[in-house]
Amino acid sequence: MTTRKKKKKRAQLCFRSPLQRGQTLTFSLHNVTPEEHIIVFKFLTNNHSHSSLMERYFVRPSAGRMIETDQMDIMLFLNQVPEDLAPNEILKDKILVRWAVIQRNTKVEAWMQAQPDSTRRKWLEMLVEQWPDQVIIRETRLKIRFV
């Protein structure tokens, strides 16, 4: 008898043809225990086209916290259309979501709530620096495909 290891299905976002600059995908982040936790997140993109240093994608909001909601809509914008994409060609683009779960009614949450929105791109790093033994940063990669 043989057993097959089940492949974990990864999150995937698909831009549909015809591709054009400014095309948008909307997806959601979910907090499954909003009564008990808040979520702090940050998106990272590193997908530059080969011909320029222009970012291929923008994410809005690119960082934030989920405090009073169990769901937040995120928009992924296609800033630069891939050139000469063959019909069956697959680009291996990804975006990375870095995130942390913070227990409600703690000193960590109080500190997080006091941070100004203008510093949101640095919140995860600030959390780890301020509370190194209480915060764990997790990462989730999202595949991007063009169909």
UniProtKB/TrEMBL annotation:
Protein name, UniProt field: MSP domain-containing protein
Domain MSP residues, every copy: 1-129
One Pfam family matching this protein: Motile_Sperm
InterPro entries registered for this protein in UniProt: Ig-like_fold (IPR013783), MSP_dom (IPR000535), PapD-like_sf (IPR008962)
